[in-house]
Write a structure and sequence with these properties.
alpha/beta
Amino acid sequence: MTVLAETVLVAQQKGGNGKSSVVANIGVAIARKGRKVLVIDADQQGNLTLDDLGVPEEQWDKGKNLAVALQYGPGGGVALEPYRNIRPNLDILMGGPAIGMVSTAIATSTEPVDMAENFSLALTELCGREGYDIILVDSGHGDKVLLIALLQACRYLVVPTKEDGASLNGVRQLAASYRRAKRYGSPISLIGVVLFDVNPNASVRLPHVFNQVKELLGSEVEPFQATIRSSPALAIDMRERHLTAQELAKPSEEQKASLLTALRNRGKKDATDRLWSKDPGAVAQDYQELTREVLMRASKERAAAASVAGTQE
């Protein structure tokens, strides 16, 4: 099976741990640097598509295009067609409820279906047409069959988690899925764990949480130094405005025009069109640091794999 070189899977087996936010913020940050980015919303909820990046609902395919590719591959007669230029240099394969039907359809099929192979072949064909520099995949948390396929087809794994027991249990479940994919021969590498929704004043507790996560994953990979701090007001602004933290902190000229009234009303209690967060800059910086670390670790892992391949020739 072909594994795409620059495909980063962001996965957790419990919802609400920041998968969609991490993919959106990293994707926009890389695209703003001039690299061509594809993000894939492999979640039947479609939050990345509708809420984080703001695909207009009338143009939302409810995940049908991606679902067909997962079930049939490029032989299904339908090529992957992303929603193009949701931001400059950024395309998205849309998520939605159709994706949730694929595993059921495959389970009842009379013919064997290799979802990982279908996904990889369809994505390879798309990348041949579009020339993406990097692909970021937001996995759904409830579909284990799809998660295993994504773990087999992607090259790098990033795990976001909160500090609570339920979130860490999601990491435990993901660890089992990760090990299963590795047994199937997947070359996927865990490149880091990022703590999400963190109290920046709780620095004493963080090493303990990191150690718990490392024990669960059975990996010597160090957690990312970057953590994403808690900011409930900013989370509301990001979802309501369909913008990332960086875009709210440093909006483009087009975004400034749409935000002008809200920016003027920031802090006005009676205003209906306003921003709730006072300063998105700190969280934007968190995501910038995380983006840098993800790219550095992926590059390091790629170089190590190339070195091993060279010695085996």
